[in-house]
Records
---
Amino acid sequence: MFIGGEWTQPDGGHYAVVDPATEETVGWAPEASRDQVHAACAAAREAFGSWSRTAPEERAAILARAADVIAGRFVPYAELAQAETGATTGTARAMQVGVGVARFRRYARVESAEWAIPPQINEAGPMGKAGVMGALAVRQPVGVVTCITSYNNPWANPAGKIAPALAMGNTVVVKPAPQDPLSVYRMAEALEAAGLPRGVLSVVSGRSVEVGEAAVDSPDVDMVSFTGSTAVGQRIAEVCGRGMKRQLMELGGKGAAVVLDDADIGSAVAGIGTTFSFYSGQICTAPTRVLAQRGVYDRLVDGLAGYAGRLKVGNPREADTVVGPVISAPHRERVESYVELGRKEGATVVAGGERPPYERGFYVAPTLLADCTNAMRVAREEIFGPVVAVVPFDDEEEGIALANDSDYGLIDYVWSGDVARAFRVARRLRAGGVGVNTVGRNMEAPFGGFKKSGVGRDVGSYALHAYSEVQAIVWPG
């Protein structure tokens, strides 16, 4: 492990990291003890004072050098990410390591951390004489930040936390997902090579729940940034609440794709179809709950069924593979159990529904469930796999009501040929983001969720706000 600037043997030994496509061992990951996690947090606390006073330009330069180191090792890092996650080659290169590099470069750009507030004229009174009061708002680092990252992207997700947190002058302890922590250790190597001072970043890993708990409950930790399930996020929030720790939570999603009767069906099918192909549906922003107006319902279902049927499922290292495996055997069983549940609830399996015929690898066929209602569990709960549920609706008001009838509210989508109509519907959706005729993202736009999909916003300049406290400085003019 990487603790306080030292590569340290784990107290708990090592465990195997398994390639989801081959079921072979990729490597051996360290299992930290509770004491080692707390030691990492203590090292971060000790390093905070000097790092927080380091000039922003110097911090930015280290991030830029780290980006260069990662870019210089791009292919082996992408191969490792692919082996750990089962991602296709294109995804591992562009969306995992490629986005990781881009995020380090983004936060190597120094932005002003202070802004003037208009002066206020005060009348004479109990607080003193009449006068003009000037004010300045200053972003200050929070302190020690624990970053707990998701398994679906071991490069982009950690980089999206580590880079802005370091840019703001925080010190960081990273607890990567147990399924694929090896890539995060490579990220630590890159930062070490870039000249990051000792103790500013530590990485601790483990399968035991105790490892994550220690990274959250340490008295040295001021903030927890977590990406993962809502259930785990709720438990973390309880601990943070008791210690008054800051939180940034990106939790579950059940993205509603509202397809109106004037939509371009080809565009809708291509966008919604990313649920089948992108990370094999293991992404919280996926449009997994499709709400189709009856005038286009049959065409949309037929289009999605055809799309799913054309996707090659298999070895992610083959150039024409579109759908790789899910992360593990237990997760495959979970996804398959939801498909069976959908059948029992009355949904029609239009595409997929059967395990692909491979002897090894945790593969799930892209699956389309039609004739669903919004009350079905397959339409309400996050499956986190290549499964789409389609629910019909009659008019615009009903579509909006169904979209908002969810515990989640991360990213929703609207397809309509009338842009004004699409924006009208988008503004009424209770979600942190809405895609209009696209599943694409603007990487400077705020990202986060309503309801049980999370707390706070990050990405772009919003991440700098997320990893900072705002201080007001007031003086007489």
Note: The chain has 16 helices and 20 strands.
---
Amino acid sequence: MCEQCHPAFAPPADSPRHRARLWEIDSQWHCTIIGTCLSLGELKGAATRLKVRMPSARPRAYEIHTGMIHLASRERLVGKALTKLLDRKHAAAINRAKSLVGEDSLAAWWEDGLTRGEVAAACWAAMSHPDATDSLRNRIFGDIHMLSHQVGAAARADLKSIHQLERDKAELEAKVARQQDRLKAEIGKRNAEIRELRQLLDQEAAESRRLAHAAQSAGEMDRLHHTLGEMRHLLEVETAFRQVAEDEARRLQAQARDRDAETDRLERELREMRDELAASESRLAATLSPPTDGVAECGEDCARLDLCGRCILFVGGRNQHLPHFRRLVEEAGGTFTHHDGGFEESMGRLHSLFGRADAVLFPVDSVSHGAHDEVKRLCRRWEKPFVPVRRSGLGAFIRALSTVAGQ
């Protein structure tokens, strides 16, 4: 019998309410709490400090996740350590939830946190609240589960866009091929006509010479000269047609080269979008996808991104993306600082941020030219890594972080 179940350890009836510890919450919700509210790096650190033995010498992310869930309800030391880590990480949300009384107010507070994207902090604060019931905890579990489906739907929409680009590329290549075949056929036809006209001209010239020697009257010679002039004019017209056809051929060839270059650009963009999509799926699946049977399913790439404590300075970008960028950097074991590129903040503050930055990232589509030039100049001066982000979206930011982590 555990010490909480023993009558000697039962709390008095008039004792004040307290927030639930992790081991006091039913183990069916441990997977949701640990997988959503703690990063893989934090779990690794806790397992190392507690000297937890894993089934393998080099445990994968899934083994660490399931191992800590298993021990949270069976080993008091592990449960206390994880509870302390959760309380420290989400202290602000816990303080905001202290004043809430009753399941209804707590449920409304959870819905507000879910709407703002503060899923991890609101999850632990609500799950451990004294007024949390099994019904509310089931509701929180269901909301997080459906959030993972929404993320998957967004990924499928990106895949559909990629497939459409591939179809457009194939249609463009087929169109260029048809134009080239038609152009070759027309040039061949023109060349055949010119050869026939030249042969006819040679024949007419020979006939004219023969008639010139044989003709006895000036009128016959005039007629022959007139015929020869018409043939020459016809040759000039056909030669002009050939020149136009050759010019059209050169124009179409140049157009084909331009379309080949556009096709190459689209292929590069397609590969980059696939890489960004794969990075987004890997990171989002690792942090937001609890399984339906209570056991987390974490892929091979969950632990790939590790910034090893680096400080990331992000210049420019859109404000709605910054909380997500900050969360990704912190989950990867780094720290995140931001400067808006001079829109509202002074450029003097940018100079002060370079002292502690280990790498500088900026989105090329959402930063001013002046800020771009200033960042490059400061990176050369401070000898900091200069990593441009192709777009201001989440996938491009993850790829840029992967570049920093691999340096």
Note: Residues 1-15, 291-303 have pLDDT under 50 and may be disordered.
---
Amino acid sequence: MGTTTLNPPRLQRLRERFAPLFANIAAGASERDATRTLAREQIKDLAALGFGALRVPVSHGGAGATLPELFALLTDLAASDPNIAQALRGHFAFVEDRLVAPVGPGRDAWLERFVAGELVGNSWTEIGTVALGEVNTKVVPDGNGGFTVTGQKYYSTGSIFADWIDTYAERTDTGQRVIAVVKAHQDGVELADDWDGFGQRTTGTGTATFTGAVVEAGHVIDFDSRFKYQTAFYQGVLLAVLAGSAAAAERDFAAELAARSRTFSHGAAASANEDPQLLQVIGEVSAVAFAAAATVDFAARSLQGAYEAALALRAGDIDLAAEEAANDAAELATAQAQVVLTPLVVNAISHAFDALAASATSVSRNLDRHWRNARTAGNHNPWVFKARVIGAHSVHGRALPRIWAIGASGGSTGSK
């Protein structure tokens, strides 16, 4: 669309700003994983340093980062702790939605909140055997111009750290599907850290229960007005998690091999850290980390194209068909990236253990967390389905679905 998507000096400045905090985050990541300790303080520190306002324009007090710059920083963060990068997934999606929303006081108020360090969590997935696309979480008029929200959600990633919760629901008065942006800290909201996955253990992904939670009228948003590249954006964050996990594995397995002098009688060198076969393994993992970061960057550029198209359509500079094409391109790119990166990263981290011996499986070293994190991130939004719809695009020219649902039987779409 003509806008520079990567500003190397700005990205370098941002990396320098966050590098000390990222290093601190990395130092405690293994222990947090082992003890299932939520990174509350670390996420507060990120918000205080302006990480949540990276995409907010400079004119409104933010960093003005493009999407390729944001995803480069998310990959860096994921290399420090992929749980934190994923915990902020809902926040950055809501920021993106507000960036393409109509200009006005309502939008400006949200940008101010982001700059002030306020964070937004995610609460979309219904619990239980709901019909495909059914929404049991309801938004009810309170009779005084406002609303209340009642229902229960799972996979409420990041909400336990947040000030606000982006909640997918249905209005009882109109049947309209909406986003209710609920204040997290009120009596009608209960957040449980009951996610028990073997990886991504500390993302704050658990149950959110709303019991007559109050929501302002201005914070009930028509779902159909959401930014069109939202599913591709959500997938992009998971791509950054995978890329960061690969980089973290390269870092930690290389450090383990560097410190290892003992070798085997049938090894290829006098010490393990000079054994060419073992160095090759680390080199292969490094190459995967490089490829993953490059793939994330390409996907982020496609998202940037969709963002710019949304602004251009709003300004009347392009037509709807051109904007739709940009969104379709972003969906395709992130889906292709997911199909490639999920097995590539998971297998590379498994292969990294070949550079070490049995001691690499020590629980105290906790190296297996890298594989567990990548495997868990890769199980979100099953890539086998994405591969099929990519094939249908290649063979029949069919556009990939941008909004899809999960449930027990047939129904309408509209839930992620």
Note: The domain at 123-225 is CATH 2.40.110.10 (Butyryl-CoA Dehydrogenase, subunit A; domain 2).
---
Amino acid sequence: MAYFKSIQGNVGYDDYIESVLAGSNTPQYVGLSALKNSDILTAVSIIAGDIARFPIIKKDLDDNIVQDEELSYLLNVRSTSNATARAWKFAMTVNAILTGNSYSRALRDPTTNKIIQYVFYRPSETLVEEDVDTHRLTYTFTDSATGKVFNCNDNDVVHWKFFTHDTVTGRSPLLSLADEIALQENGVDTLKKFFKSGFSSGILTMKGAQLNKEARKRAREEFDYMREGSTGGSPLVMDSTQEFSPLEIDTNVLQLINSNNYSTAQIAKCLRIPAYKLAVNSPNQSVKQLNEDYITNDLPFYFDAITSEHGLKNFGETERRKYRLVFDTRAVTGRNVEEVIKLYNGGIYTGNDALVDLGKSPDTDPNMKRRKASLNYVWADKVEEYQDKRNGQKQVKGGDEQDDKD
């Protein structure tokens, strides 16, 4: 008899992350509250948008693109029965970042055993259990709308996790940003209180009177009652025995709060996006350089986690040894036409290589598989031999001319 241990309890991991952001250890069932923070919303939208917009393509071990219409349709056109591939990848990414995990059940063709559709479930609708003997995972999905329960083995579940410490469950990067988010929210609250208040603090002077403790308290309460409901610019009505002097507020403090980019920069760093995308200046680099570095060095942190999971679940044992899945970013990072022409004329690219690099389909013309070569160049190890041969030919020609003169 197999025994199972639960990896996740009835309380979803998405509820747990909300409680962390709320500063409480008790789960708060209020939705994904992290998205209420504008920097988190922007950062998550950027990452999810980039993952959703770049198509996933199939390549062989020689880095050649392999056409697979069914797989491309599943991953790039329509992934679920009620959503496009973009919407599905976007939602999967959002949950994987905010909660550490995102799940979809795979529906397979009974004849070919190929995945033909996904069914998306929220983390709070998913229970993961591990067999203590075999360490195989079992996923239990509960549809919140219909109440139906589905039990699946790990081969029929696509589980996205970008950061994991045990290979089983993911960890949200937001768990490391609790202090930064709290600091940012406290600064915003301070600004809100300042601008919301119609009047700042001040000194109320009662002319010609000496007040005891109770009289001072009563005078303050009456003054607060008088200005209750007033807004900025509303007049204060006082008699000749009263004088109000507002305290000056150091606006440098407010400016410091408003210009503090520390929390925003930390959020960008933790989520691996350039700080300039969150309106923080990045010195000594152009936007083009920052964007290329982001796509080349940062996005693969997310790309590789996704493609390795789909390669494991979408390919059989034989296919895994021959093919791999990659995100096609050529629309942004691809070489321009002039660079491709130089590689083709230099003999590095074949004609078909050049077409593929430009996002075109290979041509069936046999000449498109050939490489160009220049007669102005010779192999490095043949230089001396070639030079000696040329000198010998010159000497022979010179001797022939001398014999003719004789």
Note: The longest helix spans residues 383-405.
